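User: hey, got a sec? need Phosphinothricin acetyltransferase folded
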Amino acid sequence: MTIMIRPATAPDCVAVAEIYKYYVDHTVITFDYDAPTAADWKIKRADLHAARLPFLVAEDENGTVVGFAYVGQYRVKRAYDWTVENTIYLSPDHTGKGYGKTLLRALLDAVAATSVRRVISVIADSAGTGSVALHAKAGFEEVGRLKRVGYKHGIWVDCILMQFDLDDSDAPPT
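Assistant: Yep! Here you go:
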């Protein structure tokens, strides 16, 4: 397996939209009912870039975008300025092959270069997904569960909360 991780560009948003649409239409791991368009993803990418937050894509050996990951603001209140929420998705044909591990590690490395101290992952508890295991292997710790908070495709879904501390210092943020 050859994989290249790099910052997402505006043209990558077409592939990002296609990957995400699969999960919107066929799973409960995202609570979106309608898939954002490539234009929507371009706006999100530009907003994250302006906020100096990473949005990465994974390419396979053919140069095809097979996954993406980014971090965004966790909550809007100022006290959360040092905490972000991560998102990671892979093309369904590229799960279980190590792409997720490489992409998530690259994302955490990119976040470590910012002032962020905590990364939160909110993971829909759905059978057959490897997201909890992927995050645990990357060093995330399960810190809670929200019960029956999402309803999609005729079922109620729990969310598992996981946290990764980039800096466990209690020193004030800078």
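Quick note: Helices lie at 13-26, 38-50, 99-112, 131-137. Let me know if you need anything else on Phosphinothricin acetyltransferase.
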